[in-house]
Structures are given as C-alpha cells and as structure tokens.
C-alpha cells in the first residue's frame, strides 16, 4: 500500500468519526460505565501554580476529575450541544405548566418549628402513646399543607421551585420517634415533622425519658430492648442508654437518695427505732457478685439504709456478703439514730452476731420476721411430736402454727403494713434528672470510676489460671440454657 492509499484511508476514517460525533446520546454519555478518570485541564494555570503543587507533600492531591463519555470510541463533541441561556441553567426544577386560572398571590404561611424542651415542666407528666406508622400515613395523606407550592429556592440562581401539591409523604424511624417528611416531585423537603420534642443538642425526648425510666423502674436495657424488638418498635441505642445512665441518672439518684435519707434520719433522731432488714443477691447460688441490703423503719415504712457489697470486698466469698452488709448497715444506723431492735430473716451468721459480741452488749434486740418464726415453730413442734409419748402434738401442729400466723396478722400495725407503696417521688426525681440534662454540656463517652470503686481492684488468684484448652476439655458450658431461661423468665 503506497502513501496515497494510506492517506485516503485515514481521511475516510476521520470523516466516519466526525459523522459519529454528530450523534449525541445523552444516556450513553452520562453512564458511569463510560466514564474515565482524567487529569484536570491545565489551561489557564500559570507555571508558578504548577510548580507550587508539591507531589511529595503527603496532603498533595493531584488535579484529577471524572470525565463522562471518555471511554467511548467516539468522544462526545460538546460543540454540537444546544446553547441554553441563563434562565434554563437550573436543572433540578422541571418545567411546570402554568395554571389555566390565575391564582391569587398569597403569602406563604410558615410551618411550626419542632417542639423543644426548655424546662422540665415541658416534658414531665406529659402523656404519650404507641402509634403505628400506617395510622400516621393515613393521617398524613389526608392532611393538606398550607402551601401553594414548594418553598425551596436555589441558593445560586435564586429561582423558586414551581412544584405544587400533592406532595409525597415518607415516614422514617429515629430511635423511638417517627419522622414524617413531605417532599415535592423533584425531591425538595417541604416540611419535616417529628413525633417527639427535642432536647438540647438534638436528642429526642422519648429516648432520654425511656433511658431514665428504665433505670428508675429497676428494669434493665436487655429486657426492654427485647420487648421493643418483639413489638417492632424503635429503641434507644445501647451506648446512648448507658451514657445517659452514667452522665445524668446514677449521680442524680444518689443525690436524691442522700437528701431523702437525711430528712428521714433527722425525723428519727429523738425516738426509739425498730428496723426490718433483708438482703438480696444479684443471682442465686455461690456465683453471686453483689448483695444489696435494705433496712426499713418499722413504723413509718421509710427506707433508711441501702448497702451494696461486692464479692471482691469479701475476698470473693459470696457466703459472707450478707453478713458484711448487715454489719455495715447496723454500724451506720447506730451512729445516726437510737436503734433498739432489728428484725431479719433466720440467717445463721446474723443470729450469731446478735447473740454475742458488741451488739449483745449494746442491748440491741434481734427478732425474726413472722414467716420465719412460723416455719421455726412448725419445725420445733414436729420435732417434739417425734418424742415417745408426745405423738398427739402432730394433730395440733397445723392449728398451732395457723393460730400463731393469725396472731401476727391481726397485730395493731397490720393496716399500716398493708399500705400500698406509692411512687409520688418519681416525677420529682424525673424532673431532677431532666434538669441536669438541660443544664449540662453534653455526654462524655468515657466512663470514669472513683478511686475507691471495687472494680479497680481484685484479689490475685493463689494459683495460675487454667488454660483455655484445659477448660474446654474438662468443662461443659451451660450458657445457652441459662440465656434461654433468663429470656423465658
């Protein structure tokens, strides 16, 4: 092939390519599959600016861009595109046919702002309900917004969106709240409505109140979260719950408890005090980690002492935790009030403490509660009926124990004992927690422990701990069964 033939073929290919570039396929050019990464146009850039770009700098970013249609065999010819004027440069607002009837010019009414909680009175005691999204959507579809068109205005061109009602309604979930949003055909937000008011920094009031009341009701996050999961409801985030609890809940409850306890102690200083006390473990058996011992004044039915003992404070011996908690309770109350009698259950270690030592020398009376007294009475009568010649006592056993039980039930203080527990202090405590949140500076994400917190120390094991292989070889884990039983309860 000579030079003339090569030149003719090259000119023919150029003419074919020029013909192809005349056809502009907008979808094909805008397809990301046909895009390439290209370096920015260096035209209009001075040599000083080019030299200032140091490629050795770790923050240096080369001038790259995405070029649409760059992967096509025939590159698009932009010169063939139609020329538009400035009035057509807003691409996100479609052309809307003008109405046949001229509408009167009305001032666009403003939408109400999201309710904000400024004081505790704005939230404490307010009624709340469980609402299904289908019911919200039914209400939203019948609701006519007080606007004639979309209120969106472009920040660059200052052109207004011409979309008119009806607007599309979408419902999303945020924590325990439902967010309804009205959007026009282009996607501009016309109005956003929340089913809950907000606190400072945008926290939803329902999330904060749920986290606070889980703590105040004595429940735990896992069970409430499982309940909400079964009901397909939104739940406050786990990390947010514990952050709210540590930042606002725990310290406020302690301050509230110490204030109320000080008031009760001041009322009891000038009279003889009889307390009824009992302890409870966080789990049965020898695996208990904590013991909480509570003492209540017998006449006023006020709680005047709550002591929590960690197993690590008793040498990891859970058997003596209740005795240790009892000693702390009695020693504290002896220094604050005139304690004359203590009523507990039939705990062997506590009975041994009261029958000898300093408590006996102080003349402190120890009595058992009537249920344990009835059980011990039945046990002793049954033992006496086993003696030869005293078998007739067995026929009187039930009547004697029931008579003792009846005498205990018909005591003068029985009606006061049956007084139902009231929760009148809960709104005040909720208001204190909420006030701390409203006046606070936000929630720290790092938890701090006191220097004397039991979690900071623990006794070292006397022997090296076994390896994981040894544990897996010799032990059978009951974790799944325990988890199932816990959830089942």
In brief:
The protein is built from 16 helices and 10 strands. With about 500 residues, it is an alpha+beta fold. It has helices spanning about 5-20, 25-30, 45-50, 135-140, 205-215, 220-230, 240-270, 320-335, 350-355, 360, 370-385, 395-410, 415, 425-440, 470-475, 480-489; strands at about 35-40, 65, 170-175, 175-185, 190-195, 270-280, 290-295, 305-310, 340-345, 365-370.
Description:
It is a single chain. By secondary structure, the protein is α+β, with helices and mostly antiparallel strands. Among the domains are: 17-84, no CATH class; 132-194, no CATH class. The chain has 16 helices and ten strands. It has helices at residues 3-21, 26-30, 47-52, 133-142, 205-216, 221-230, 238-268, 321-334, 348-355, 358-361, 370-385, 393-409, 414-417, 426-438, 468-474, 479-488; strands at residues 36-39, 64-67, 168-174, 177-183, 189-194, 272-281, 290-297, 303-310, 338-344, 365-368. A five-stranded mixed β-sheet has the order 8-7-6-9-10. A three-stranded antiparallel β-sheet has the order 3-4-5, with helices on one face. β7 (290-297) and β8 (303-310) form a beta hairpin. It is elongated. The model is unreliable at 414-419 and 475-485 (pLDDT under 50).
